[in-house]
Structures are given as C-alpha cells and as structure tokens.
Amino acid sequence: MALYKTLTISKTTKVLIWKIEESIDELKEGIILSENSKTRLDSMKSDLHQKGFLSIRHLLKELNLTDADVFYDEFGKPNLKNGSYISMTHSFTFTAIIFSDDKPVGIDIEKQREKILKIAHKFTPIEEYKTIANVDALISKLTIVWGAKESLYKIYGKKKLQFLHHIYVADFNFEDQKTVGEIRFDGKTASYTIEFLEFEGFTCVCAY
C-alpha cells in the first residue's frame, strides 16, 4: 500500500498523501465501509473515482480512524463524529487528507495542466501575473492559487462563496512554500495559513 508522504504541520495537525498504484480489489482489502459508503462506491462509474474513494479510507486508517467515523453535512463537507476536523481531496493518481484536533482545515490536490491558463480569469485577477514570462512557472503559480482557494472554500464549507470576489491569496515566492489567505464574506474577514508542495507534476495545497 502506498502512503506517499506525511507532513506534520503541528502537534495536532497532519497531512497524509497517498499515491494510487493498487487495483480496486487490493484497495478494498483491510477496510470496512458503511452501507452508505458502499452505495456511494457502487454508484461511481469511474475506476479512478472508486480508487480515490477507497484510498482515502486507507489514509483514515493511518490516523486510526474508520469510514464510520466520517459523516457528510448538507453541503457535502466531511466531518468527524469526534469533533476533530478533516478535509479530503483526490486528483488522478493521488489522494490526500488533512486532519486536525483543534482547527478547521482544508486541502486540495491538482494536476498541473495548461488548462488552468484558460480559466484563471474566473478565480484570480490575472493581470497580477503579467510579469511571469515562463509558462511553466505561471501554470505552477496559478495551480497553487487555485488549490489555496479551493482549500479555503472547503474550510468555509457552504455555498455562495465566489473564488474571485470572496477568497484572497497573498502573493508568494515558490521557495517559501507558504503564504496567507483570507475569506472575505458577509462583512467578515477570516485569515488562514496556506502551505503548498509540488511533486510528480501535481500540487498539494492546504489551509488552516
């Protein structure tokens, strides 16, 4: 089984990343699914989505949690019955979770693709990036910004939040692997730390 990376954010907060290299049958081994989760799994048409769903359950196991410890609210946000915080993500051959005992968290994995250049104007003021001449660097930066906004959106956990107008990510240097983000909505501002890393053509971003 392929636990790819573990990041310790603090004593109470951890990130676990899984690289999917197993078959569906192999991923079914050693985990118990609730009836609701079995129904969800059976309804997934894509092998990739099924593998993502199952590998997340193995990541839960790494934290001594089970599928039964997770429930989803009316907005589809995963929560833990013990009151701790969790967020999950899946992209192609990688899945990840962020877990915290004491603070709201969000996480996102994205494959770095040129497609992001076409949609960037929908989630960030693209004129801020005009100085980046290198296309690969631009794709990399925009993917981090998207992942950061997705992570913050997951923390908020409700509808109506717009990436372009309500979620702000401060500029950053790649080597810092860290920045700050804010949710500005309904007359309130909430600030969060953003951390990111890149591997094998993917970007993982978490917020807390």
What does this protein structure show overall?
The protein has 208 residues and is an alpha+beta fold. The protein has 2 domains: 3-103, Ribosomal Protein L22, Chain A (Alpha-Beta Complex); 108-207, Ribosomal Protein L22, Chain A (Alpha-Beta Complex). Helices cover 31% and strands 33% of the residues. The protein is built from 6 helices and 11 strands. It has a 5-stranded antiparallel beta sheet. A hairpin with a 2-residue loop joins strand 5 (85-91) and strand 6. Helix 4 (115-123) packs across helix 5. The longest helix has 22 residues, at 135-156. The protein is globular and about 50 Å long. The model has no long low-confidence stretch (mean pLDDT 95).
Order of helices and strands: EEHHHEEEEEHHHEEEE
Name given to the CATH architecture of the largest domain:
Alpha-Beta Complex
Strand content: 25-35%
Estimate nothing, just give the exact number of structural domains. Answer: 2
Terminal residue distance = 28 Å
Number of helices: 6
Describe the main β-sheet briefly.
5 strands, antiparallel
Shape: globular
Provide the CATH superfamily of the largest domain: 4'-phosphopantetheinyl transferase domain
Number of E-state strands: 11
User: Radius of gyration in whole Å, from Cα?
Assistant: 17 Å
Question: What is the CATH class of the largest domain?
Answer: Alpha Beta
Query: Mean pLDDT, as a whole number?
Result: 95
Structural class call reads alpha+beta
CATH fold label of the largest domain? Ribosomal Protein L22, Chain A
In terms of per-residue confidence, which ranges show pLDDT below 50 for 5 or more consecutive residues? Answer: none
Order of neighbouring strands in the sheet with most strands: 7-11-10-9-8
